[in-house]
Fold:
Amino acid sequence: MAKSSYFPNVPAKIPFDPKAKKGALAFKHYDENKVVEGRSMRHWLRFAVCYWHTFRGTGSDPFGPGTMLRPWDDGSDSLKNALSRVDVAFDFISRLGAPYYCFHDRDVAPEGANLAKSNKNLDAVAEKLKEAQAKTGIKLLWGTANLFSNPRFMHGAATSCNADVFAYSAAQVKKAIEVTNELGGENYVFWGGREGYMNLFNTDMKRELDHLAKFMHMAHDHAKKIGFKGQFLFEPKPKEPTKHQYDYDAAACLNFIRANGLEGIVKLNIETNHATLAGHTMMHELEYASIQGALGSIDANTGDLLLGWDTDQFPTDIYLTTQCMLVIMKQGGLAPGGVNFDAKVRRESFEPLDLFYAHVGGMDAFARGLKIAAAIRKEGILSDLVKQRYSSYDAGIGKQIEDGKVGFAELEKYMLAKGNADPNASGRQELIENIINEYL
Ligand code: XLS
Ligand code: NI
Ligand code: NI
Structure:
């Protein structure tokens, strides 16, 4: 591909070059064709670039306006601007070598004066996205609808007290699923932008949750009707913008899924910064979702320990990416999900080049996590330790418990005869942490 004038110093494809000098625009670890545990890095990681932060982020914060220099963008919300942005986005993603992208309807196309006009804008941009996908081979990991920016969503979307807003949201999601389908999207995400509450005194929680369940069934019915084969995903987040988001964490989402007959229909898209806002580690959320067959995809980013909001920074911590990859590899990968960089460059990193540094760093951090996790798995020290820790359940009374062969009466008899429980063994936490460090 010809060099774009917008990225003058960036190669047409960022190379894998472990010998490149420090700080060079090159991958030191992400070698897309390198096979790890029988699968290429590209297939394990399934990286996606997100349209909203990378191509629409301005760098504004609650204390000041945007700072980003985006010479291709005229700053307007015109259709013309949206269309030319597509060229730059696909040029960027091609140079980076990420196989996927993700978007909200309103990131890619401007909202019109009414729903019909918004749909028309979206169709016009979708046509161009489709061409760009065909030309570059870049695919759509997931689409979603922005049901939170417009003031109409002030009380929520599917959980709004205003039935017309529910209807509007349904119409908007219908269209977003159709466009995602048209573009071959492999998943469709529901992040409940303002599905939650600010004040319980004015909230009928039962009614709101029932409405949300109805909404999800309608979405599923429509997906079936149009033949959309993609995976539906909830994206848990505990707070922000509302003080309590209904999709609080993986556990709350899974409870909602089960309580409302959505098992097998909706899995989860787990985001690091959301996990930490919920008071969990990313590894906890991944593991909790995974053991229940519900880990579908991840939004890869990280928060800041000293800032209490969703700062969506790029992930650079290889301890974190190792933890992610340990869980992801244990379940055999994420497909049809992937690793989406729902992450933004910070306000002070305002040049286009910073977008490359950020993504290359994130991709390399995950590639390292993948290699480290593979090494840990290969030697099996960790899994052996865990297996050993639970070995009392592999035979004897433990096995009878697991097999459902005994109840309280049998266990009482067993223990009365034995007199006391066998002594405990050490959890060896420090040793295990030391061993993990040996792989880093
Ligand atoms: C916001 C969410 C959002 C979703 C997509 O915190 O992370 O960006 O990923 O709606
Ligand atoms: Ni987020
Ligand atoms: Ni997200």
